[in-house]
Design brief:
With 192 residues, the protein is mostly helical. The protein has a three-stranded antiparallel beta sheet with strand order 1-3-2. Strand 2 and strand 3 form a beta hairpin. Helix 3 crosses helix 7, helix 4 crosses helix 5 and helix 5 packs across helix 6. The longest helix has 26 residues. The protein starts with 10 loop residues before the first helix and ends in an 11-residue tail after the last helix.
Length: 192
Amino acid sequence: MADERTDERTDDERAPAAGGGDAVDFWSFVELADRRLAEEFGFPHRLATRTLLTLNRASMIVTYDLEAAVHRPRGLSWAGFRLLFVTWLAGPLEARRAATLAGMSRAAVSNLAKTLVADGLLARTPGERDGRAVLLSLTEQGQRKMLDEFSAQNEREHQWTGVLTETEQRILVMLLNKLIANRDQFDVRERS
């Protein structure tokens, strides 16, 4: 006969154990990680882990959505859009500066620039002061492309952020800026 007692365990206690397989979705995984890291392994900074897991997940979901819904259908990758975007708004730029602004390695920018030049969207010219430097700028076709790309992206951004009030959006930006601005308090590794 089945036990008819009510389940008096907390939600955390009902969360799947390690190896829970298909029963674990992202949010139950966060709960599982939170509990196991603290209780089994003794890691003290539970909220820090939860915060960064959530931040990384949000970033990945939004980035993938923008790429899949906006850029891939128009023939661009997310990396291609980022390079064209910084060049469009801040260019002409030396390739190394474009890499920094786009959060990419110089090698990635160099390889990507070859494709974008071949596609007629980007122009490469020798730098004025340093013959080894390369200046990147958008072609007329690239300018038109970015107006179309960003128009579509901006509408998608509005859909994403529409669940937040304007005040909540400003608070989120303020909090993220605070997180980033204080990275000099420890040895942060980042592309520069």
